[in-house]
Amino acid sequence: MILKDNLKRARKNKGLTQPQLSEKLCELSRKVSPQQISSWERGDYSPSHRNLSAICEILGVEHVMHSKSQDLESGGGRKTEDLASEFSMVEKRKGAISAGPGLAPNDEVDFRLAFRNEWLEKHGGVSQLVAMQVEGDSMEPHLQENDVVLINKNIKEVSPGGGIYAIKWHNDILVKRLQVNPQTKSVLIKSDNPNYETLETSLDDIEIEGKIVWYGRELR
Which of 25-47 are b and which e, b meaning 16 or more Cβ less than 10 Å from the residue's Cβ? Predict the structure, then answer.
């Protein structure tokens, strides 16, 4: 029996809803949303070992896991299919996100990148992340042209310390460093490249697509 069927059955046998299971996981210091539990039960991706152990403790079962747990118990080592189940694929969209004058990526999937589920869960799960390619030089030296960035769509507000965000502005998708002025409630749109000027506008004028939480670069 695969994980999604075992997990759903064990949860219902315990008389718990997905939000109730989420609350109990939070009590064990596992920050898991009901949406993540739903994703596990649909089979979109698998929980990390830590989350799985917490689930087993809450549901009072020895294992709700599939063959991975059995293989680990028997000392048979890590099989390729077991290792693969610890990862989920994040879609990389065609087109580019601009670190320059502005571009508009499309919704077609170019390729997919594998990330560990445990890391993905910290950022809200695979469904909340999308990868895009950088074009332009306005964010150099930190982000260079053709870098692939991972956007966390869960984060729609600028943190107090600022950060690098994907924003929609004037119908373009840009990657810029944002910093909010707490006195005027305006936002500074900065480029790391000093050749580009800093712009200032109202927060209402931009739409935050998400925060950049990872980047990858091909060495040349």
Answer: beeeebebbeebbebbbeeebbb
**Strand pairing class (172-181; 163-169):** antiparallel
Mean pLDDT of the chain: 79
Average pLDDT over residues 77-83: 46
d(CA 157, CA 177): 13
pLDDT of residue 95: 60
At 69 the pLDDT is 40
Residue 154 in this model has a pLDDT that exceeds 50: yes
Q: How far is the C-alpha of 57 from the C-alpha of 76, rounded, in Å?
A: 24
Residue 132: the pLDDT is 87
Domains of the chain: 3-84 (1.10.260.40), 87-216 (2.10.109.10)
CA 137 to chain centroid, in Å, comes to 25
Q: Which of 187, 196, 87 is nearest to 143 (CA)?
A: 196
Name residue, tokens 């005027």.
184
First to last CA, the chain: 46
Judged by average pLDDT, the poorest of 3-12, 60-69, 89-98, 141-150 is: 60-69
Contact criterion met (CB below 8 Å) for 68 and 82:
yes
**What residue type is assigned to position 40 of the chain?**
W
Distance CA 29, CA 19 (A): 15
